[in-house]
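Hypothesis: this fold can be encoded by more than one sequence.
Test: take the structure tokens below, design a sequence, compare later.
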């Protein structure tokens, strides 16, 4: 073990992900030949081939697959431990990128203010993330943590503070028959088309925003799909369908041609703070604590 080189392990992991020597080199900012050299050195130390190379493709050998399964979690754990130690040595500094969907509500903004007062050496950057891709920016490391609309069932994400419990409402055109109602029940949704979400969001999340059936099993007609809230409200205004929104979002995006009718019978809306479990830092933990303090106080 003492003669293994961390760069050899990094090269193998990059090659296992990319299955291409050139792309693996680009990922590690080294040449293709350097990746090949590091892999040969690793295979020599292990005593067997880990990767099969042909003129057409690159693939792992059975031993390479087994080696990858054991190496990946161990290597990620080492990297995480080093990052945590570095953060502790430096204190909470650097830059924290916080993603949000739609609009950053008062709790989020108050948490950011509290975080900045606690850690003035750490800058914060607020990034709007796509409504149709709530988890992608976290997976791609475009943000460090994100406030997203529940539910969250991603195994690679840590579910932090869950907050902002809000009742649901139904956005409809002022010309829609429901616009004259003072309240609606979830079973009423069978009589309207719900505008859905298309994009990279997982199916379970998209179904939560536009369910296919009422709680009692009545089918809900599917309306058009959108990638942003603004697109959805434009279609609502045009009479193309209805859209489920929590009360604060309805208030924020209120339009004269759109009516928001209180809706009962569905689970309340919640927001949640998430981050990737392999990229957790002292900054993400500190912001989660700030958000929890604000949520508890509210």
């Amino acid at each position: 073990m003492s003669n293994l080189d961390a760069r050899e392990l990094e090269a193998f992991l990059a090659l296992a992900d990319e299955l291409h020597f050139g792309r693996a080199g680009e990922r590690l900012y080294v040449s293709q030949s350097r990746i090949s050299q590091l892999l040969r050195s690793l295979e020599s130390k292990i005593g067997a081939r880990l990767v099969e190379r042909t003129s057409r493709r690159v693939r792992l050998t059975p031993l390479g697959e087994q080696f990858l399964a054991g190496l990946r979690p161990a290597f990620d754990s080492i990297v995480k431990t080093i990052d945590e130690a570095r953060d502790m040595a430096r204190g909470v500094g650097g830059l924290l990128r916080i993603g949000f969907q739609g609009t950053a509500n008062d709790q989020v903004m108050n948490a950011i203010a509290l975080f900045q007062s606690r850690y003035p050496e750490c800058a914060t950057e607020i990034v709007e993330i796509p409504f149709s891709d709530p988890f992608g920016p976290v997976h791609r490391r475009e943000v460090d943590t994100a406030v997203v609309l529940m539910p969250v069932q991603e195994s690679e994400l840590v579910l932090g503070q869950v907050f902002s419990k809000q009742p649901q409402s139904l956005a409809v055109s002022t010309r829609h028959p429901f616009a004259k109602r003072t309240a609606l029940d979830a079973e009423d949704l069978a009589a309207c088309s719900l505008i859905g979400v298309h994009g990279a969001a997982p199916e379970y999340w998209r179904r939560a925003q536009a369910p296919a059936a009422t709680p009692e099993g009545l089918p809900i007609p599917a309306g058009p799909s959108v990638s942003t809230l603004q697109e959805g409200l434009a279609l609502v205004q045009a009479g193309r369908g209805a859209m489920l929104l929590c009360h604060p979002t309805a208030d924020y995006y209120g339009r004269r041609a759109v009516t928001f009718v209180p809706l009962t019978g569905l689970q309340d809306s919640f927001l949640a703070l998430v981050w990737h479990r392999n990229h957790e830092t002292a900054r993400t933990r500190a912001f989660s604590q700030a958000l929890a303090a604000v949520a508890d106080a509210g």
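The CA atoms of residues 89 and 194 lie 51 Å apart. The chain is about 40% helix and 25% strand.
Hypothesis status: open.
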